[in-house]
Recover the amino acids of this structure.
C-alpha cells in the first residue's frame, strides 16, 4: 500500500462492503428461513461446545450479533480451563468456530463467563453426574450426592432421572426427587433449569435428566427475580393505639342522685 492511511481506508471499505453484502443477503432471506438457520447454528454450536468443554463445567452459550462482530459468550463453572494458558484454548475455539461457520477474519469473538450459582445450573450438575458414573460410582450413590449438593445450596427442589442398563441386563429407570418442583405454566420457564446427557457405559448407553427448581431472589443473581404467582405474603398487623374508654354513663347518673 502507498501509506498507512490508504491501507486503513481499504480495510474500512472492505469491512463496509462485507457488512453491506451480509445485510443484503439477510434482506433476501425470508423470515422463516432466517429463524430456522439461527436455530440450526445455535444447536450445532451448543453441541460442539458441550462436547469440547464438558469437563470444564460447560453451562450454556449466548450469541450476540452486533453490526461490527458476532459475540459468543460461553457460560462455564471453570472459566480458567476454558480460556487455557494465556488464552490459548479460547483462541483455538474461536478459529474452529470461524472456520466451520464461514465467518470472515476477526468478525467473531468468544468470551468466557463464570456461572455464579453452580448448584442451580442443571447442565453443570448433569456433567458432574456423568463423570461420577464414568468414574465407576454406583448410580444410586451418585444421584443422591448430586441431589444433596443441589439442595444444600439453596434450591427449592430437584429431580434426577437415570435410565438404561443399571447393573443387570434389563434396562430400567430410577427417579430421585427432593423438595418442591413445578412442571407447568409460565413460572416453569423462569424457575426450572433442565438438562439431558448421555453416558456411554461399557454395558450400554445411560440417559441422565436433571431438573432443578431455583429459589426466588429479588436481585435476580441466585434465582429468578420474578416472584411465584401463587406466593402469598402475610404482613404483620399494624400496632394501633387503643383509645381510653370513658367512665360508664349510668355511674355518673347514680352519683347525681
Amino acid at each position: 500500500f502507498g501509506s498507512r492511511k490508504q491501507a486503513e481506508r481499504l480495510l474500512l471499505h472492505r469491512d463496509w462492503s462485507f457488512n453491506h453484502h451480509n445485510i443484503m443477503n439477510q434482506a433476501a432471506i425470508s423470515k422463516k428461513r432466517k429463524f430456522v438457520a439461527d436455530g440450526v447454528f445455535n444447536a450445532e454450536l451448543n453441541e460442539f461446545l458441550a462436547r469440547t468443554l464438558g469437563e470444564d463445567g460447560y453451562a450454556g452459550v449466548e450469541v450476540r450479533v452486533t453490526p461490527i462482530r458476532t459475540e459468543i459468550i460461553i457460560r462455564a463453572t471453570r472459566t480458567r480451563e476454558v480460556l487455557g494458558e494465556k488464552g490459548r484454548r479460547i483462541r483455538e475455539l474461536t478459529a474452529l468456530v470461524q472456520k466451520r461457520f464461514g465467518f470472515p477474519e476477526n468478525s467473531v469473538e468468544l468470551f468466557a463467563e463464570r456461572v455464579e450459582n453452580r448448584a442451580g445450573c442443571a447442565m453443570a450438575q448433569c456433567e458432574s453426574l456423568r463423570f461420577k458414573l464414568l468414574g465407576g460410582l454406583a448410580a444410586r450413590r451418585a444421584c443422591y450426592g448430586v441431589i444433596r449438593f443441589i439442595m444444600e445450596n439453596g434450591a427449592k427442589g430437584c429431580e434426577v432421572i437415570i435410565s438404561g442398563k443399571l447393573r443387570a441386563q434389563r434396562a430400567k429407570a430410577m427417579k430421585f426427587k427432593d423438595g418442591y418442583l413445578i412442571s407447568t405454566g409460565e413460572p416453569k420457564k423462569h424457575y426450572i433449569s433442565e438438562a439431558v446427557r448421555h453416558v456411554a457405559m461399557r454395558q450400554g448407553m445411560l440417559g441422565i435428566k436433571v431438573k432443578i427448581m431455583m429459589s426466588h431472589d429479588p436481585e435476580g443473581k441466585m434465582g429468578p427475580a420474578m416472584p411465584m404467582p401463587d406466593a402469598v405474603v402475610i404482613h404483620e398487623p399494624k400496632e394501633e393505639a387503643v383509645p381510653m374508654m370513658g367512665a360508664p354513663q349510668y355511674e355518673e347518673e347514680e352519683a347525681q342522685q
Summary: The first strand starts at residue 58 and ends at 65. The two ends are 122 Å apart (CA to CA).
